[in-house]
Amino acid sequence: MEIILKVSYQGGLDGLCGMYALVNAYMMCGCEDGEDILLEACRALAKSRWPEVLVKGTTFADMQRMAKRCKDVMGIDHVQLRYPFKRQAPRSNEVYWQRFHEVFKDQDVACAIIGVEDPMMHWIVAAPEKGHIMFMDSKAGEPFFQKKQSSLVAGSRKQKPGQWLINPAELILFTRP
What we know:
Helices cover 30% and strands 28% of the residues. The chain has 177 residues and is an alpha+beta fold. Strands 1, 2, 3, 4, 5, 6 and 7 form a seven-stranded mixed beta sheet that branches.
């Protein structure tokens, strides 16, 4: 009789990627206490969201609420939050990336959080690095698992198998005033 062992890993069963994306984004902005950021992010959510948020993950509204609470409660005055595509999302992949790169030309941009819809509801961090933009995912054992822009597509469907479909409206920008 063969026994097939299935193991779970950190992040494999929970929907806390939004909280980890917030921790990573604020730490890229110079904040040092990731544990306090994580706690305040969790406290920002209504009790009615628990424990479902652990399995289903965080929505864009949750992310906005958590980012604001962390900033306000922790007194993070050196960071501003912006949602540049919230009201008028780019309508195509090409327009998305054009507008995305225009936003990142601002020298005050520290990083951004991007909402992924497929293959799963997820949040990743983007940050300028030596003239280009790095796309990072928090993954167990690899806190900065890097993605390529070509593996991300904004729009209504993927262009190639293996790409991640991002929601063009879900962009949280972290800037330094």
